[in-house]
Structures are given as C-alpha cells and as structure tokens.
Amino acid sequence: MNYKNLETELILRCSTTEINPNSIIRIKEIIEQDIDWDYFITTAKIHKVAPLVFVNIIKIASKVIPSDKLSTLQTFIRSLVIKNLYIIKELIYLMECFESNNIPAIPYKGVILAAAFYKDPSLRQFTDLDFLVPREKYIETQQLLMSLGYQAPPQTNVDWERGFINPQKQIAVDLHQGLTRFSNLINIDFTSFCDRLESVLIGGVEVKSFSSEDMLIVLCVQLAKDSQWTAEVLIKVCDIAQLLRANPALDWQLIWQRCKKLGTRRILLFSLSVTKEMLEIELPDLITQKIQADQVVQKAALQVCQEFFDRSEESFLNRTFKERIYLRKLFRERWQDKISYNFKKAVTPNERDQEVVELPTQLSFIYYFLRPIRLTFKYLNRLF
Question: For residue 145, what are the contacts with CB-CB under 8 A and spacing of at least 6?
C-alpha cells in the first residue's frame, strides 16, 4: 500500500481491531514525528472510523500524544459511547414494537455490524437505525413509526427507502424495502434473506439479521454504490475487513454462487479488491484468482484506491455525466441487467422529480407521469 502521507497511514494502520506487532511499531514511529493532528482527527471523522482509530491510538501511544489532542480523542470516545448506547436502546424498543405488530423487520448496518464484527459498540460509529421490511409491509411500518413519534420529511422519500426522525428522541431511522435504489446496482429483496437469518446479541437481547455470507454481499454492494457518490467510504471498507476477520470459515463457494444468481460477482470482486489493497486483508485463493483474471475490476479498484483520501463531496458534484455512470455500467455484468438498468434509469422518478413538486406518499405514483414531462422540458431547453 502506497500511503499518501503519515496521517493517512496512521489512520489505515489503526482501522482494525487486530493490529499486528509490526504495525504497532510503525504506529509508534509515526506518532513521534511531526504529524498534523488536526488533519488526522478530521480525516478519521470524515471517514467515520474515528472511534476505532482513536481507541487504538490511545492504547498504543497515549504517553506521546499531545495532551490537548489526547483530551479531544477521549472526549469524542466518551460522547460516542453514550450516544451509541442510547441508539441501541431504541433499536431494542423498535424491534419489540415491530414484533408485536407482526412486522418481520431486519435490522442491519451500524448497530448490527458493531455487535457482530467489532464486538464492542464503542468501536464503530453509527448515527441512525436501518431496517429492511417486506414491500407489502412497507406502508404499514411507516404508519407504525409515525404513531411512535417519528416524522418523515418529504425529501427523504425515495423509491427504496424512507427516512424518519424522532424530534423528541433525536434519533433517525431509515426504513428500506430494498437495499439499493431500484434502478441502481442490484435489487436484492427481503425474501432473498429471510431463510438465512442469524442471531446477533445486542444489549443482552438476541436480534435476527443477515447471515455472514449474505452480509458480505450487502456490504460489497454498499461499498460499490458509495464509491461512486460519496467521499466517506473507509468505514465501508473496515466493515468488510471486520466481517472477514470475524468469520475465517466463510463458505466462499456459496457466496460466489449467490453472487452469480444476483449478478453481483463483479461487485464482490471490486469491493474485496479495494479492501485488500487498503487494509491488507488476506483473501481466499478462489477470490484472488478471479480478481487477477478481471482487468476491469482491477482498474476500477485501483482508481478508487488512488483517490481514496483526495475524495470530497465537491469533487463528486463536479464529475461529468460520463464519469458518474462509469462505475454503474461497469458493475452490470449480465445483458439483462444492462437493459434493466437503462430502462429503470429512464422511467424511475428521483430526487429531482420530487423537487419539482412535493406529493404525499399516497400520491407518489404521479411522479411516474411527471418525470417524462420534466425530462422533455429539460432537453428541449438544452436544444434551444
């Protein structure tokens, strides 16, 4: 791994729950040099790996960290622990509410990952709760959340998820009926996972979530998606690495077959390739050989790794249309997926359609009629 600077090397070496002896020696060497602590702290926060990085660096070298910076790290960790425990309590409460209303919700992302793969809720940052529900229960679940004091701002309503906020508790919930935008990388629905759920112990309570094999696929899809649009992707890489470390006996043949069925083999290879490069994770021979045989995957992964710490929200907004769709098209590995992607992209309403006029949920179908009208005027204006 070619590190950009000492600060990013320090972040990457501390972005694991299992730091090897050689890395510990190197971390101590880096801290004794003249590093930019403000840049280090800010970058770790931007990539949402601050708790893991800060805890590790305090354990290894607290005596040589400047006192004011050490205080900043410790204050951040204490505040995060309190907030995380508060969110965990709400997760348990909402799961009880869903169960009593016969809603088979699956929690995933932050809280689940912290409990299952980091083994310590203080080592991973999470700011909201994510639930996947069957599409036929989507509206009912929204109504239940609103009866519990949650509100749904109109701008958070998109085709595969809706965001909620409880103003009294100051907790956000993302309710999903799919794992990604329906016109995006892949449409993995609720029923694909229901027969393979595993128990995760959270706050002394057993909660059902995705199996480790399914969770790996989900995390790889999320990393592939976020690598196109956001600057904060190191936490996604860490999640994949932590899952692999916590599950050395993963069934890779099963994972590959599921990805083949879903059309996500290239997504899997891309995300694992990025994880291997950034955090030096060992991959099984099966996956390593397939990455080496796919030049397209190698090129895309190298591009993401090279710009990893140079990524900013502004740089993503300034990308050309061609650059924006490059990775999306890259990941479409089956001809039927390519046709489906282009069709859904053309007809599915998005945030820009919702900006034209705000409609209540029960009238959201009207966006499908408004979209062609909006696009017609848009391209006519370009012509004239």
Answer: 152, 164, 173, 175
The structure's pTM equals 0.82
Q: In this predicted model, what pLDDT tens digit does every residue of 368-379 receive, in sequence order?
A: 767 776 776 675
d(CA 55, CA 112): 20
Under 8 Å between Cβ of 371 and 355: no
**What ranges in 47-190 are assigned the alpha helix state H?**
50-61, 67-100, 110-113, 138-147
Q: Which domains does the chain have, with CATH numbers?
A: 102-210 (3.30.460.40), 212-317 (no CATH), 334-375 (no CATH)
Three-class SS state of 346: helix
The pLDDT tens digits for 256-307 are 999 988 888 999 999 999 999 999 899 999 999 999 999 888 888 888 888 7
Q: For the chain, what percentages of helix, strand and coil (3-state, to nearest 5) are there?
A: 65, 10, 30
Average pLDDT, whole number, for the chain?
Answer: 83
For the chain, how big is the Rg over CA atoms in Å? Answer: 22
User: Are the beta carbons of 174 and 126 closer than 8 angstroms?
Assistant: no
Beta-bridged to residue 161, according to DSSP, are: 176
CB 262 within 8 A of CB 333: no
For residue 170, give both structure tokens. 């100051």
